[in-house]
Write a structure and sequence with these properties.
Elements lengths: L7 E6 L5 H11 L3 E6 L3 H7 L11 H8 L4 E4 L3 H6 L2 E4 L19 H13 L4 E5 L7 H9 L8 E5 L9 H6 L4 E5 L3 H14 L8 E5 H32 L3 H9 L20 H14 L3 H28 L8 E5 L14 H11 L3 E5 L4 H8 L7 E2 L3 H5 L4 E4 L11 H6 L6 E4 L6 H7 L2 E3 L10
Parallel strand pairs: 1-2, 1-4, 2-3, 4-5, 5-6, 7-8, 9-10, 9-12, 10-11, 12-13, 13-14
The chain binds nicotinamide-adenine-dinucleotide (NAD) and uridine-5'-diphosphate-glucuronic acid.
């Protein structure tokens, strides 16, 4: 590999949902840079080198293929790659801590710190270290202290460049971001490093969309952006409960409220609850930070966003159980969708998994179906998986069931032949639309008892 022809050597540590797509975009838009992505998971690295990528993301394979083998490489080799890198993006996972102080709330930074120590151990020249992972505010401070505690005379400048992409739309989000945020220390060295990272994005992102700030503002903005997005979903979900009591229709309410340009129409889709690896983790992280600064009321305010989300999922199970004559023991129920949202195979924190487990506790017989996430679901359920049926074909999944519940808003579920499905179900047949994506009147006409969210049910008795 001739590396001399490249203007910059960029390394990314962590080849997951963020590292992979983000670096593929940088490599594709900046052929003058060499981009290497490393991971401790050798299987994942191997998969990135094939056409069967380790994550499902529309348009990603095409993007990877434009640069792979030219200026984009996947590797498990840490030492040599760290040594030659000018800029190191770190996008390792930062899950919620499950032990000790802050357990269940704050971020577990062991992967991050390990990465920083690896960088420190093998580096022989100055480097810019970019926090791509979502981290608690002031992590850069700790990282800089670890990294700059060396006696080799090497300087590390730690920046924050949080990622705002959403799964399922990652490629478009990276190509046309609403904004790119780069935070640094407000020192001469900090500003110089910031300008270097801004230059990378300026290869394809308009300058006015690249925002710069101090490093703490950048770290905090990422947590706050996710908290605000999740807050909108919890707000509309809380109203969906009220609509069901007050004979209002949550869809109509969301439309009327969202038409106010000050509020806006996005992220007001009532649902069975938000999932994904980040909303809950990042809000709890925010809550923990507020608590540790003694801001009890602020912490409680944000914690309620998570509580409403849990309430919405519990409420959905209750609605199902009550509608199914207060017992679901031995009843066969199909869950349509396992992924936490459409167009991804990711099932982390998916409401479908929570609901499947709850229904199982009531001794229902559950069949799970999903076009992309069945294998991940099987793995996530571990030993419990043998208690579920897995069926890729939704028509087969629905056969002989008493009820179907829509868990994921896959387009596929909007266009199924529900007449055909109805014929093969036990009667009375029920459908619970946890995403409000179906034509409820039509389903009712077919013969289903229909339970939308935030709207009166349509029943035949
Ligand atoms: P992920 O689990 O998909 O990927 C993280 C990768 O890091 C894994 O492949 C893991 O093997 C690797 N890793 C862990 N420790 C390592 C080490 N010491 N050396 C090399 N590799 C190591 O996680 P993700 O979804 O890509 O998220 C990464 C970060 O980005 C998190 O902080 C998350 O909050 C944030 N984020 C995620 C999204 C998203 O849509 N998933 C969006 C924005 C931000
Ligand atoms: C979210 C943010 O949208 C990204 O900006 C952020 O970078 C990312 O988290 C992260 O930090 O990980 P993501 O979780 O991939 O992205 O997907 P979203 O589109 O935000 O959906 C999250 C959940 O909310 C899904 O379960 C989705 O179905 C649900 N949702 C979304 C609703 O229930 N209603 C809505 O109106 C919108």
């Amino acid at each position: 590999m001739n590396t001399d022809k490249f203007e910059k050597h960029i390394l990314c540590i962590g080849a997951g949902y963020v590292g992979g797509p983000t670096m593929a975009m940088i490599a594709a838009r900046c052929p003058q840079y060499q981009v290497i992505i490393i991971d401790i998971n050798a299987e994942k690295i191997k998969a990135w080198q094939t056409d069967d990528l380790p994550i499902y993301e529309p348009g990603l394979l095409e993007l990877v293929k434009t640069a792979r083998g030219k200026n984009l490489y996947f590797s498990t080799e840490l030492e040599e790659n760290i040594k030659k890198a000018d800029i190191i993006f770190v996008s390792v996972n930062t899950p919620t801590k499950s032990f000790g102080e802050g357990a269940g709330k704050t971020a577990d930074l062991q992967y991050w710190e390990k990465t920083a120590r690896n960088i420190l151990k093998v580096s022989v020249s100055d480097k810019i270290i970019v926090e791509k992972s979502t981290l608690p505010v002031r992590t850069a401070d700790a990282m800089e202290r670890i990294l700059n505690s060396n006696d080799k005379g090497i300087h590390f400048e730690v920046l924050s460049n949080p990622e705002f992409l959403a799964e399922g739309t990652a490629v478009n989000d990276l190509e046309n971001p609403d904004r790119v945020l780069v935070g640094s220390q407000e020192t001469a060295r900090g500003r110089k490093a910031r300008a270097t990272v801004v230059e990378v994005y300026a290869n394809w992102v308009p300058r006015e969309k690249i925002i710069t700030s101090n490093v703490w503002s950048a770290e905090l903005s990422k947590l706050v952006a996710n908290a605000f997005l999740a807050q909108r979903i919890s707000s509309i979900n809380s109203i969906s409960a009220l609509c069901e009591k007050a004979e209002a229709d949550v869809h109509e309410v969301a439309k009327a409220v969202g038409a106010d340009t000050r509020i806006g129409s996005k992220f007001l889709q009532a649902s069975v609850g938000f999932g994904g690896s980040c909303f809950k983790k990042d809000i709890l992280n925010l809550v923990y930070i507020c608590e540790s600064y003694g801001l009890k009321e602020v912490a409680e305010y944000w914690e309620n966003v998570v509580k409403i989300n849990e309430y919405q999922q519990r409420r959905f199970v209750q609605t199902m159980t009550r509608a199914l004559f207060n017992t679901i023991t031995n009843k066969r129920i199909a869950l349509f969708g396992c992924a936490f949202k459409a167009n991804t195979g990711d099932i982390r924190e998916s409401p479908a998994i929570y609901i499947a487990k709850k229904l199982l506790q009531e001794q229902a017989r559950i069949v799970l179906t999903d076009p992309k996430a069945l294998e991940n679901t099987r793995q996530e359920l571990g030993d419990l998986a043998r208690k579920f049926d897995f069926e890729a074909d939704p028509y087969k999944a629905a056969m002989n069931t008493h009820a179907i519940a829509i868990m994921t808003e896959w387009d596929l579920y909007k266009t199924l032949d529900y007449e055909r499905i109805f014929q093969k179900m036990e009667k009375p047949a029920f459908i619970f639309d946890g995403r409000n994506i179906l034509d409820h009147t039509r389903l009712f006409e077919i013969g289903f008892n229909v339970y939308p969210l935030g709207k009166e049910p349509l029943t035949h008795f």
